[in-house]
Specification:
Chain lengths: 257, 276
C-alpha cells in the first residue's frame, strides 16, 4: 500500500511486490464431525492448495508436509499431529462433535452410506446388518474409541476446539473467524459467505435439516439426533465408557442425562 | 481427659472462673485418604497395605452389578453414600468426572495410580480368563469367550470390551493435571514412593518403621511366595513385573492397540511416540 501511495510501483515496476507466503493450514477432526463439509469448502475456496486426504493419513504422517498447503480432514490426536515436522508458519483448527451423535452417525454410515474403502468395512456392514439397532449401536461403540482419543488428547492440551454443533448454528461467523482471520485463507468475506451457503446441508442434500435419508452421507444434518436412537441400555453403556469425555469437552455437566 | 482425671479442670474453674478453663484438647481427625486407580494397577497390593495398617478406618470397596450385562458399576461405597471424614477409601476405580460427583470432606488427600495400559490389558486378559472371582454375568460371559478364543483374539476382545474404561480413566486424570503415580515406579521403589505418598502427603498417621515392614511384607515375592517374573497363570498375583506385554502382543494386537490408545501412551509418558 505504501508503495502505491508514493508511486513506487510505477517507478520501480521490476521490483517484485512483497507478498507473504500463506500459512500451511491443518483441519484436524475425527470422523463424523462434518469433515467432508469443511473439505468441500476448501475445495471451493483453495483448490490449488489442497493436499488430498488419504484414508490412513499417509499424506501427513509419512510424507514431508508441504508449506503453504491446506490439509483437510486429518483425523489425528495431538500426539500424532506433533509427531511430524511442521512448517513454522502454520495454522490449525480442531473440530469435534458430541460423541453420542458421532456414534449414531457412524452407525448409519457403516450400516448404509459410506463407500466401502477396504475389506474390513464390508465385514462391519454385514455385522451391523445382522444386528438390531440397539445391538448395532453397542457394536459400533467399539469403533468410537479413536474419536474419543482425539477428543481427549486435544482437551488434555487445553487447545481451543470448534464444536460441530456450533458450526451448524452459526457457520458463517465461526468459519469467517477460523478460516479467514486465524488461517488467513486469503479469500474475501463475501466469497466465503457464498461458499458456506452453497455447501450447507439444505443446499447440498436438497433436504431440510432433520429430513432423514439413511442411504445418504448427508443423512440428517442436525445435532442431538442421538436422543432418537439411544435406548436405556445404550445410554447406560455409553455413560460408563464415554460419559467422562462428554463432561471434559463440555457437552454435559454430569452423568445425569 | 488428663485434666479431668486429676481434677485440674475443676480446680482451675473454681480459681479463675469458667472463661479461664482451657478447652479440652481435641483429638485431630486423621485425613480422609482416597486411593484412585484402575483395575490391574496394583490396587489389591495397596489395599493389603491399608488392611494391615489402618483396617479400622477403611471403607471397603463395593460395586453393583447392572442389568445391562456391562461391567459392574464400581466404587458405589463412595458414589452412593456420603464420604466419611477420616476414613480410608481404597481402590476407587473412578474417572475424575465420576469422582467429582461425590462431596469429599475438606482436607481429603487423594493419590492416583496408573499402569501401562498394555500390561494392564495382558493382566486383565489372564485375570478375566482364569483367576478373578466370577461376580457378574459380564465376567462369566467374558470368561467363556476368552476360553473359546485364541490368545490373540482374546486380547483383541479385551481391547474392545474391557480396556476402554481404563483408557477413559487415564485420559481423565491426565486432563485433571494430577500427579500420576506409576505402578512400574512402585515396583522398583515401593518403600520410598509409598512413604512419600501415604505418610507425607496423605498423613496416614502410622509409625514409619511399621509402615516399611508392612510394605516389605506385602510385596509380590512375600505374598505369592514366588520371585518376580515367575509366572502362575492361576494366581491373582500372576507375574509381578512390568513390560510383560512384549511377551504376548502380536503384530496385529500392537497395531490395533496403537490405533486406539497409542496417543494415550504418549500422553501418560509410557512412550515418546507411536513407533514402538
Amino acid at each position: 500500500m505504501v508503495r502505491n501511495l508514493i508511486g513506487l510501483n510505477r517507478l520501480l515496476p521490476w521490483v517484485p511486490r512483497f507478498k507473504s507466503a500463506p500459512p500451511t493450514v491443518f483441519h484436524i477432526t475425527h470422523y463424523k464431525a462434518g469433515s467432508q463439509w469443511i473439505h468441500r469448502l476448501f475445495l471451493a475456496l483453495a483448490p490449488d492448495r489442497i493436499v488430498a486426504p488419504d484414508a490412513f493419513h499417509h499424506q501427513f504422517l509419512d510424507q514431508p508436509v508441504v508449506p503453504g498447503k491446506v490439509y483437510p480432514t486429518l483425523y489425528l490426536t495431538r500426539e500424532q499431529f506433533r509427531s511430524v515436522a511442521l512448517p513454522r508458519n502454520h495454522r490449525k483448527f480442531v473440530v469435534i462433535r458430541d460423541l453420542r451423535d458421532t456414534l449414531v452417525s457412524l452407525y448409519f454410515s457403516q450400516l448404509k452410506s459410506h463407500p466401502i474403502l477396504f475389506k474390513g468395512m464390508e465385514q462391519q456392514r454385514q455385522t451391523l446388518a445382522a444386528l438390531g439397532p440397539e445391538e448395532g449401536l453397542l457394536a459400533a461403540m467399539h469403533e468410537l474409541v479413536f474419536a474419543a482419543q482425539v477428543q481427549w488428547s486435544w482437551t488434555v492440551a487445553r487447545e481451543p476446539v470448534v464444536k460441530y454443533e456450533d458450526l451448524l448454528q452459526n457457520d458463517e461467523d465461526i468459519l469467517a473467524d477460523v478460516l479467514l482471520r486465524r488461517c488467513q485463507l486469503g479469500v474475501g468475506r463475501e466469497v466465503l459467505r457464498d461458499t458456506v451457503r452453497a455447501n450447507r446441508f439444505e443446499a447440498f442434500s436438497g433436504r431440510k435439516p432433520g429430513d432423514e435419508d439413511v442411504t445418504s452421507h448427508q443423512r440428517k444434518g442436525i445435532a442431538g439426533d442421538w436422543r432418537n436412537h439411544f435406548t436405556p441400555r445404550v445410554t447406560e453403556v455409553f455413560k460408563r465408557r464415554y460419559g467422562s469425555v462428554l463432561i471434559a469437552t463440555g457437552y454435559e455437566k454430569d452423568f445425569k442425562w | 481427659m488428663v485434666g479431668n482425671v486429676i481434677g485440674i479442670r475443676g480446680w482451675a474453674k473454681g480459681l479463675f472462673g469458667t472463661s479461664a478453663v482451657p478447652a479440652a484438647p481435641t483429638v485431630p481427625v486423621p485425613s480422609t485418604v482416597l486411593h484412585i486407580t484402575h483395575q490391574k494397577a496394583g490396587s489389591q497390593w495397596i489395599n493389603r497395605i491399608f488392611h494391615l495398617l489402618v483396617y479400622d478406618r477403611m471403607v471397603h470397596p463395593e460395586n453393583e452389578v447392572v442389568p445391562t450385562h456391562d461391567l459392574p458399576v464400581e466404587a458405589t461405597q463412595f458414589l452412593r453414600r456420603p464420604v466419611e471424614a477420616g476414613k480410608v477409601y481404597p481402590t476407587l476405580y473412578l474417572t475424575r468426572e465420576q469422582f467429582a460427583t461425590a462431596r469429599v470432606p475438606a482436607g481429603a488427600e487423594r493419590f492416583v495410580v496408573i499402569r501401562d495400559p498394555r500390561d494392564t490389558l495382558v493382566s486383565a486378559y489372564f485375570s478375566c480368563k482364569k483367576t478373578h472371582a466370577v461376580q457378574s454375568d459380564w465376567l462369566q460371559n467374558c470368561r467363556a469367550e476368552l476360553n473359546r478364543l485364541s490368545p490373540e483374539a482374546g486380547l483383541m476382545f479385551m481391547l474392545d470390551h474391557w480396556l476402554p474404561t481404563v483408557a477413559t480413566f487415564q485420559w481423565s486424570w491426565v486432563a485433571a493435571g494430577d500427579r500420576l503415580i506409576k505402578y512400574e515406579d512402585l515396583l522398583t521403589n515401593d518403600e520410598v514412593l509409598l512413604e512419600r505418598v501415604l505418610l507425607d502427603q496423605c498423613k496416614l498417621g502410622v509409625d514409619r518403621e511399621r509402615f516399611r515392614e508392612v510394605v516389605r511384607a506385602t510385596r509380590f515375592e512375600a505374598w505369592s511366595g514366588r520371585s518376580r517374573g515367575n509366572e502362575d497363570k492361576n494366581s491373582h498375583e500372576r507375574k509381578g513385573i512390568a513390560g510383560d506385554w512384549k511377551n504376548y502382543f502380536t503384530e496385529r494386537v500392537s497395531r490395533a492397540f496403537r490405533s486406539r490408545y497409542g496417543s494415550l501412551l504418549v500422553a501418560t509418558g509410557y512412550e515418546r511416540d507411536e513407533r514402538w
